[in-house]
Design a protein that fits this description.
Blueprint: H1 9-21, H2 25-39, E1 60-62, H3 73-82, H4 93-105, E2 112-115, H5 117-128, E3 134-139, H6 145-152, E4 156-160, H7 170-178, E5 183-189, H8 201-210, E6 215-220, H9 236-240, E7 246-251, E8 264-267, H10 270-277, H11 287-298, H12 300-323, E9 335-339, H13 344-353, E10 356-358, E11 368-372, H14 376-391
Helix pairs in contact: 1-14, 2-12, 3-11, 4-11, 5-6, 5-10, 12-14
The protein binds pyridoxal-5'-phosphate.
Length: 395
């Protein structure tokens, strides 16, 4: 616990209170930024006025890129209202969600397939394109589900090394496809997990629009709604313009904060959707999840709030990492990837002893840590903890 590091809980609390009062320069900057953001949204940001005091039994969970804010109040109410009706399948509600998503992405209903989270989308899309002599091509550092399912389906897996600072090497990924004598499934996560970086839209789009027939792109945009970089584009516009070689995967787990309700969807051409639909559990999605998703899509104020709160949390984290001289990649998501000051396992254990859980190992990025961005109050706790650990020369 904190005491054996000579940082008393009282001191941590004092540091947090100092932030509330705006006494530290960096925290003042955060507060000014947060206040600026607050002006643009209707929800009240749970920011610097919330002193977070985690315990070992109730730690701050920054290990699974969940959305710590909780779901939209309207979505929560919709899920509660749905419980008495959850003895039924969501037969009437699923087409409503399908239609709403089609309108949102500017495609006809037959371009959308609802899935139990995007995990089911990843599995079913890979399964649908497994033909003999197929390879899955992925960057060496990316979300592991693609590789996980490809192994189950006995696909050849080709991992492409990253450039410096873990930038994804799209040219070498293309080369791996060009050099393979068979069918290629290219699984790209944009923005990528764990690096949080985005692909340059023109580079990706020009490859997709000129790609040969012996390949399919599965693009996972789980975190797209958090992106600030204007160079990011969703591939949904390629699909609405008729592209046949792209499968887009989306989820309600991140910006909508509904990870436990398991709602996701696939967007692609009607032919691809028919193919992928053979491998999902069909018209049997979580009833409460579907109702919550419908309500959440209408709650634009919550969605803006959800993004802006992450912007504030990111600023707090960027400040402490810069202050401590720890390298980090520019984050376009609700998590950050930074170089650890000590061995990753020891760092993780140290943070855990201080009631903060962070991400697992991501080979081959030795001693880089993925930390999810929680609420601004949670990130303030983390920032103060890290400052205290540095003061103690523990990190
Ligand atoms: C890139 C990416 N895709 C998909 C998922 C799975 O999300 P879900 O199945 O909850 O939609 C995650 C979860 O963290 C993720 O990081």
């Amino acid at each position: 616990m904190i005491s054996n590091l000579n940082i008393s809980r009282r001191k941590l609390l004092t540091l947090s209170s100092a932030a509330v009062a705006g006494l530290s320069v960096n925290q003042l900057l955060s507060k000014a930024y947060a206040q600026e953001i607050q002006k643009s949204i209707a929800f009240s940001l749970p920011m610097l006025d919330t002193v977070v005091t985690p315990t070992l039994d109730n730690p701050i969970r920054l290990n699974f890129n969940e959305n710590a804010l909780g779901m939209s109040p309207n979505a929560k109410q919709a899920a509660i209202n749905a419980i008495p009706k959850a003895n039924r399948y969501a037969k009437a509600e699923m087409p409503l969600l399908n239609k709403k998503l089609g309108q949102h992405h500017n495609v006809e209903d037959d371009h959308i397939l609802l899935t139990a989270g995007s995990s089911e989308g990843i599995r079913s899309a890979i399964e649908a394109f497994c033909i003999p002599n197929t390879q899955l091509v992925i960057p060496e550092l990316t979300y592991s589900d693609g590789e996980h399912f490809a192994k189950i389906f006995n696909l050849k897996i080709t991992k492409v090394s990253c450039l410096t600072d873990w930038q994804i090497d799209l040219r070498s990924i293309k080369k791996a496809v060009d050099e393979f004598n068979g069918f290629s499934i290219v699984y790209l996560v944009n923005p990528n997990n764990p690096t949080s970086t985005v692909f340059k839209a023109n580079e990706l789009e020009s490859w997709i629009t000129s790609a040969p027939k012996n390949m399919i792109f599965i693009v996972d945009e789980a975190y797209a709604e958090f992106v600030n970089d204007p160079d990011f584009h969703s591939v949904d516009s390629l699909i609405s313009n008729g592209a046949e070689n792209v499968v887009l995967l989306k989820t309600f787990s991140k910006i909508h904060a509904m990870a436990g309700l398991r709602v996701g969807y696939v967007i692609s051409s009607p032919n691809n959707i028919k193919n992928i639909a053979q491998y999902v559990a069909g018209e049997k999605l979580n009833y409460c999840g579907v109702c919550a998703a419908l309500a959440s899509m209408d709650d634009s104020q919550f969605l803006t709030y959800s993004k802006k709160a992450i912007d504030v949390s990111r600023t707090i984290m960027e400040q402490v990492l810069s202050e401590l001289g720890l390298q980090y990649l520019k984050s376009e998501t609700n998590f950050m990837f930074h170089k650890t000051p000590i061995d990753l396992q020891k760092y993780r254990e140290l943070l855990q002893q201080n009631c903060v859980l962070v991400g697992r190992d991501f080979d081959p990025a030795t001693n880089w840590c993925r930390i999810s961005l929680g609420t601004p109050g949670e990130m303030l706790y983390v920032a103060n903890l890290m400052r205290g650990l540095r003061e103690n020369k523990t990190i």
